[in-house]
Design a protein that fits this description.
The protein has 476 residues and is mainly alpha-helical. It has three domains: 104 residues, Orthogonal Bundle (Fumarase C, Chain B, domain 1); 218 residues, Fumarase C, Chain A, domain 2 (Up-down Bundle), CATH 1.20.200; 80 residues, Ribonucleotide Reductase Protein R1, domain 1 (Orthogonal Bundle). The chain has 21 helices and six strands. The strands form three sheets. Strands 1-2 form a two-stranded antiparallel sheet. The protein has a two-stranded parallel sheet with strand order 3-4. Helix 3 packs antiparallel against helix 4, helix 3 packs across helix 6 and helix 13 runs antiparallel to helix 15. The protein starts with 19 loop residues before the first helix and ends with a helix. GO terms for molecular function: N6-(1,2-dicarboxyethyl)AMP AMP-lyase (fumarate-forming) activity. InterPro entries: Fumarase/histidase_N, Fumarate_lyase_CS, Fumarate_lyase_fam, Fumarate_lyase_N, L-Aspartase-like, PurB_bact, PurB_C. It holds the Pfam family ASL_C. This is Adenylosuccinate lyase.
Length: 476
């Protein structure tokens, strides 16, 4: 049997198959039916503005202001767009071979049916020429995409990202005093605290999420080449700039773009996708760090009852959540960065390359959302391994070479004797040797420190040499 013969159709993309549950929320905003619903919304609201004006009567002639009942009927068109409507619109597109024209004809169908709900006196069946009036397809598309993307980012992607950040912030506060050995270049280095290291990610991520929260979503409605040519040909006395601005800003809730070709220039999309990709890469860095902490034993994983770690090695608990998150962040970045690079270009006043690329915005967001889901699951399954953390600190007393040689430099500046070449003396003692607490104390005792400094250095341990790491958590 051919898999293509099975009904309902088998999903080609894993986002719509294996991972459907984790990404289904985006369907509400980034699917083709969601786009068509917003197209209906834009078309209907444009009709209402043209008929009812901006407080001083209709903008176009031959139309009476819509009644409250007529406005309610029109706004119900996108609100009630469901399975039947999707099939009906698809039937129109099969004939028109043009997606926005199919939207226009779908509205025409419902205008014809208006008397069944509003009575024979309604004007709606007679004002079909108001549908898509003076518009090019991109007037509808750019606004519809902006609304879809804005809702998807604000209602789905951002809450998932914020859940990660809030979790990290909570753990940073919980572990702000938990000392741990640092590794720079993979080698033992100045100790830090687990909380401070988590706070680094919180700070980085919050900067990017603020950019996303402040992101402008631009829109335009100005005709075939952005000149309002058709608008003025029909109604030369109308202030179409004011009408356009009112529609984009007040009716659509977007930022008005006054200067475009046939398409809105997509610069805001490039900005948004670049920032989301940046978030992906920061979180990819977190995945790698945590994976290595698990490998090192700093984090322990909580086994899932009944789950298989390895198909042949029963003892293993593989960090698959973090590995899956890594891979999906990478796929998301590749898509979003391609979109950011290509959407800002268009040949002269219009080419169609953005039509197919924009249909993959939901895929780029979907892989990021899937990665966020995996990462959250992974973070919920780990906890610090206190035994390993303490052992690492206790086995690396050589990290106290830094504070000792720095204190020697300070003493030399104050004129104390025997403090020359502090770096070299500490290096001779500690590099390439196994150093104990006693070795450190004996070395300090040979130096001419004042009593307070000698006491402070002698009392220092790898676990207490964390500077103000715990206080830095408050800056996240």
């Amino acid at each position: 049997m051919k898999l293509t013969d099975i009904s309902p159709a088998i999903a080609l993309s894993p986002l719509d198959g294996r991972y459907h549950k984790q990404t289904a929320e985006l369907t509400e905003y980034m699917s083709e039916p969601a786009l068509n619903r917003e197209r209906l919304h834009v078309e209907v609201e444009w009709m209402i503005l043209l008929a009812n004006g901006m407080g001083n009567g209709p903008i176009v002639g031959g139309v009476k202001p819509f009644t409250d009942e007529e406005i309610e009927y029109l706004r119900a068109i996108p609100e009630n767009f469901g399975a039947e409507g999707i099939a009906q619109m698809a039937a129109h597109e099969a004939v028109t071979h043009h997606d926005v024209k199919a939207v226009e004809y779908y509205i025409d169908d419902l205008l014809d049916k208006a008397p069944e709900t509003l009575g024979a006196d309604t004007q709606l069946p007679h004002i079909k020429q108001l549908v898509h009036f003076a518009c090019t397809s991109e007037d509808i598309n750019n606004l519809s995409y902006a609304l879809c993307i804005k809702q998807a980012v604000e209602n789905v992607w951002t809450p998932a990202a914020e859940q990660i950040v809030n979790h990290l912030a909570e753990k940073a506060e919980q572990y702000k005093d938990k000392a741990m050995l640092s590794l720079t270049h993979g080698q033992p280095a100045t100790p830090t605290t687990l909380g401070k290291e988590l706070s680094v990610y919180v700070y980085r991520l919050r900067r990017q999420l603020k950019k996303i929260a402040d992101q402008e979503y631009l829109g335009k409605i100005n005709g075939a080449t952005g000149t309002f040519g058709a608008h003025l040909a029909a109604y030369p006395d109308v202030d179409w700039i004011a009408v356009s601005r009112e529609f984009v800003e007040t009716r659509m809730g977007l930022t008005w773009n006054p200067l475009t070709t046939q398409i809105e220039s997509h610069d805001w999309q490039a900005e948004l996708y670049s920032t989301i990709s940046h978030v992906n890469r920061i979180l990819h860095n977190l995945c790698v760090d945590v994976w290595m902490y698990i490998s090192r034993g700093v984090f322990a994983q909580v086994p899932v009852k009944g789950a298989t770690g390895s198909s042949t090695m029963p003892h293993k608990v593989n960090p698959i959540r973090f590995e899956n998150a890594e891979a999906n962040f990478e796929i998301s970045c590749s898509l979003l960065e391609t979109l950011a690079a290509t959407l800002v270009e268009s040949r002269w006043q219009r080419d169609l390359t953005d039509s197919t690329t924009q249909r993959n915005i939901g895929v780029g967001l979907g892989y990021s959302l899937l990665a966020l889901n995996n990462l959250m699951g992974g973070l919920n399954s780990i906890h610090p391994n206190d035994i390993v953390i303490s052992r690492e600190l206790d086995e690396n007393w050589e990290v106290l070479g830094e504070p000792i040689q720095t204190a020697m430099r300070a003493a030399a500046l104050e004129g104390r004797k025997g403090m020359d070449k502090p770096y070299e003396k500490v290096k001779e003692l500690m590099r390439g040797h196994s150093i104990s607490k006693q070795d450190v104390e004996s070395f300090i005792a040979t130096l001419d420190f004042d009593e307070a400094t000698a006491k402070r250095l002698t009392e220092l341990t790898p676990a207490t040499y964390t500077g103000i790491a715990s206080k830095l958590v408050d800056f996240d």
